[in-house]
Amino acid sequence: MIKAKTLGDARAQAQSNSELNWWIFMRISGLILMFLVLGHVYMTFVQVSESDATYDAVVSKLANPAWKFYDWLILVLALLHGMNGARYSIEDYIRSRPNRFWVKGVFYSVVAVIMALGTVGLFSIH
Ligand code: HEM
């Protein structure tokens, strides 16, 4: 795992291109997610009251492709950001290679299923 504060340090430490790309992705996705999620919570909690978040209201909002894309971006970025964060922890704490392999395999599969269900659910709304 890269432990760096600047891009230059991260480049020097990176064992591979993909490790460096994940390091960059974590910084960018974290920043974007802050705005997307704050906006999401604001719109679903503050702007409307809880009782307004009905099935019909959500479906009519998600009929707009721009909102579909907004929600989908949170779905994908949050899942990948969380998945890679958990991968760092798995690599730190699970020292045995075969165990690491199985834990990662199960974990990535769960993430893939959630991403597929979330995407199909979102884009099946018309
Ligand atoms: C506690 C506050 C929250 C409330 C009340 C809430 C409520 C909702 C509602 C009503 C929807 C349906 C669609 C829409 O209105 O956009 C939704 C979708 C979604 N929310 Fe939240 N949300 C909350 C927090 C979060 C957080 C913190 C995240 C991410 C870290 C998140 C991620 C998502 C995603 C990814 C979808 C789209 C899921 C899909 O259809 O595939 N939400 N949320």
TrEMBL record:
Q: List membrane-spanning regions.
A: 20-42, 69-86, 106-125
Q: Which Pfam families match?
A: Sdh_cyt
Keywords recorded for this protein, A-Z: Heme, Iron, Membrane, Metal-binding, Transmembrane, Transmembrane helix
GO cellular-component terms in the record?
Answer: membrane
InterPro entries in the cross-refs:
SQR/QFR_C/D, SuccDH_FuR_B_TM-su
> What are the protein's GO molecular function terms?
metal ion binding
Q: Where in the cell is it found?
A: Membrane
Q: What is the designated name of this protein?
A: Succinate dehydrogenase
